[in-house]
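Why this split exists: single-chain examples teach little about how molecules sit against one another. For that reason, every record in the complexes split bundles all components of an assembly together and asks for one structure covering all of them. Below is a record exactly as it appears in the raw files.
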Amino acid sequence: MKISIIGTGLIGGSIALKLRDKKFTDFVYGIDQDEVHLNNALELNIIDEKADMENGVKNSDLTIIAIPVDSARKILPSVLDLINDNQTVMDVGSTKSGIVESIKDHPNRKRFVAFHPMWGTENSGPKSATKESFAGKAAVICNREDSDADALEIVEKVIANLEMHPIYMNADAHDVHTAYISHISHITSYALANTVLEKEREEDTIFQLASSGFSSTVRLAKSHPEMWVPIFRQNKENVLDVLNEHITQLRKFKSALEKENFEYLEELITNANKIRGILDK
Amino acid sequence: MKISIIGTGLIGGSIALKLRDKKFTDFVYGIDQDEVHLNNALELNIIDEKADMENGVKNSDLTIIAIPVDSARKILPSVLDLINDNQTVMDVGSTKSGIVESIKDHPNRKRFVAFHPMWGTENSGPKSATKESFAGKAAVICNREDSDADALEIVEKVIANLEMHPIYMNADAHDVHTAYISHISHITSYALANTVLEKEREEDTIFQLASSGFSSTVRLAKSHPEMWVPIFRQNKENVLDVLNEHITQLRKFKSALEKENFEYLEELITNANKIRGILDK
């Protein structure tokens, strides 16, 4: 199977590496506006050949769009314009309502599968790509009823080759859930980094004292704005809803401390501890 | 050297395991109110013998207090009452101003060294203890001028055997810095867990969708209230100060989203990205 990867960064690159390793594909075209990324991807054996959009997509059985969600939404209609009924297109974006909405009336809508792998790191670019990536994680397919059965089947094979397990979900529900589970974590982490950078002027002290706990909580704050501004933009309403709740929750800690109500503080912490039972099932 | 560990949990247990492994000590007394912990510690070869406070402390060259900060503060004077000029006492608490204040007029003050190892996990109890723990992390000694030179030297040897590097700091400065770097991370993480638990009623969805990013950010929310309520209580003013700043920072994200000011959002994220340069020095 021939594949085109539009966007040869962390996610696109990692998918390509894994699918090549599994011999799911025998030829990968790389399409990327960033010539440096493209050359890196070639050197790192992520892709076999650099291509422009038209050549790559037209000659591929499967095209995987792995660029920031706003750009993905922008180019998807023209990618679908290029393909026929035997070709499939999937994306990997962290927001789903916008992208499925943007092509709902496209004649080739059914050749598209809306996909979101629940894996990523704070790093980006082809040099961060690794085939040791997606295994064991959830792979969300949205609005499967809007895709052709054979297109769906190809994406399910991709999921199997990535060693992920598929979850099927409505695009709107996906965007609500990921606001809770992924997007708010990033805002929290960014705001924590900004708090520390604002309050702690002694950078050496941050560096010296930073324990694994701090590094873990603030890790996502290293994630780049090119990826995350578009996600927050596309999922604005859901993210705001969760962010308001998060501020409310923080105010409870503030109030418990201010009033020296340590029983309430203990209650808040004991409630938070329940996340252990859910995450460690 | 004979050692008493008061509190045979994660930190006390891990220190004992490492110091035994390094042959720094040839006999460890375990002192713990929790009989189950004590028996576990014995079975796990963390300690050689269960002891009561008086027997353990009196017969040890070094006593390490590794219990929640409020209890440590409470028992420290009576521990110091039990020792002579050849014996040393250290604690491992995450707040330091309160404990040094509580014994500032004690006749044996100089036999005490205020210590804080910058390592921990969200787990607790002797079963979580591991000798693969402290290496490479910072070990803070506070107000060293208030300790006898030979007592200080013993604690510095402990630090070397834990493969940590010592940092010297005033107790008040320590409490300010740890509020920024450690304590606020825990509140953020607790509040994030509570947010998700409040908004996401479908526990299975949390479990299925939870990516490594979410797990990483929310990891500290598993930490127990027995340890953390006393820390927040003792470091209330500093924690409130940082918490207020953190809420202010989150409000900036909220405002940027509400006003659809995506340039400002990008600016906030780009600023947060600076944490990469500091953590990855």
